[in-house]
Amino acid sequence: MSIHIEAKPGQIAQTVLLPGDPLRARHVAETLFEDPQCYNQVRGMYGYTGTYNGSEVSIQGTGMGIPSLSIYVHELIHEYGVKNLIRVGTCGSIQQDLALGQVLLAMGACTDSVTNNLRFNHLQYAPIADYQLLSKAFETAKSLNISCIAGNVFSTDLFYLDDVNRYDVLIDHGVLAVDMETSALYTLAARSGVKALSILTVSDNIITGAGSSTVDRQQKFMDMMKIALEISNSTQHTAYRQQQ
Fold first, then answer.
1. What's the pLDDT at 109?
2. How do residues 60-102 score in pLDDT, each as one tens digit?
3. How open is the CA angle 52-212-29, to the nearest 5 degrees?
4. Average pLDDT across the chain, whole number
5. CA-closest candidate to residue 211, choices 60, 99, 131
6. CB contact set of 138 (below 8 Å; sequence gap of 6+)
7. What is the separation, in whole angstroms, between the first and last Cα of the chain?
8. Parallel, antiparallel, or unpaired: how do β-strands 15-18 and 34-40 relate?
9. Dihedral sign for Cα atoms in the order 32, 34, 39, 44
10. SS3 of residue 168 by DSSP
11. Per-residue model confidence (pLDDT) at position 70
12. Positive or negative CA dihedral for 22, 178, 13, 227?
């Protein structure tokens, strides 16, 4: 039985959206889901299942950082049989020309976290997105007329830094932005043979110091959610065809 999720078997859909903020999970469920049902309140980490355009989908808060996300992703996969995991979160741009509110699709995720060093005995593993989810997200964004950029991101364990030049080498190699979870999501999904994608919205620019207002963040977050929810529909339809 899951330690951190109190859902009963069958209460969580095979596709789960993963915001870090549990209150955002609740807001999305109550705003965009049809007939949302709360299945988890343990530690205030809300989880809901509902339908979107007739397809079942869940949303689960994960908290901040790789250790917290890893707990929820592990339990969703191994205790509830989740097959598609879509992170929907914010990130800090490290490229000056990336506008605030820009939606990013994380093709891969570098990291400074020790977790993958421990897992791979210091081998250099490259966590990457599931290609089918990635390509579907790009096509969906185009159809919705939402600007979307695919590229590499960096998942860090350190939110506050004293070294202002720390990201220079990443910038020189085209890394787009910094988050705190994607690397672990992709690694755990690969280990368990499930699909994962991280869709991110640029909330601030680490290099220039620019930041989004609360209103701007909410609007651009909804752009990201539209993409994720349309993908959730497509995964349900694909699963149905495979069963036939």
1. 98
2. 999 999 999 999 999 999 999 999 999 999 999 999 999 999 9
3. 20
4. 93
5. 99
6. 105, 148, 150
7. 31
8. unpaired
9. positive
10. helix
11. 98
12. positive
To the query of whether residue 179 is one of the catalytic residues in this protein, the response is no
pLDDT of residue 218: 67
Region of 23 (left: φ > 0; alpha: ψ -120 to 50; beta: rest) is: alpha
Task: Please state the rounded mean pLDDT for residues 171-181.
Answer: 98
- Distance, in Å, from the CA atom of 168 to the CA atom of 140, rounded to the nearest integer, reads 33
Contact in structure between 148 and 101 (CB atoms under 8 Å)? no
Phi-psi region of 10 (alpha: psi -120 to 50; beta: other; left: phi over 0): left
Q: What is the pLDDT of residues 15-33, one digit of tens each?
A: 999 999 999 999 999 999 9
Q: Is the pLDDT of residue 41 over 60?
A: yes
Query: Look-up: residue for tokens 């720390």?
Result: 166
Options 21, 130, 179, 204, the catalytic residue = 204
Q: Identify the bridge partners of residue 106 per DSSP, sorted by sequence position.
A: 151
**What tokens does 133 get?**
């989810």
158 CB neighbour count, 10 Å cutoff: 13
Question: What tokens were used for 48?
Answer: 């809901």
Residue ranges and CATH numbers for the domains of the chain are 15-243 (3.40.50.1580)
Q: What is the pLDDT of residue 236?
A: 65
Are 7 and 82 in contact by the 8 Å Cβ rule? The answer is no
Main-chain phi, psi angles of 4, to 5 degrees:
-110, -5
Residues 159-188 as b or e (16 or more Cβ within 10 Å = b): eeeeeeebbeebbeeebbbbbbbbbbbbbb
The dihedrals phi and psi of 174, each to the nearest 5 degrees, come to 80, 10
pLDDT over 90 at 240, yes or no: no
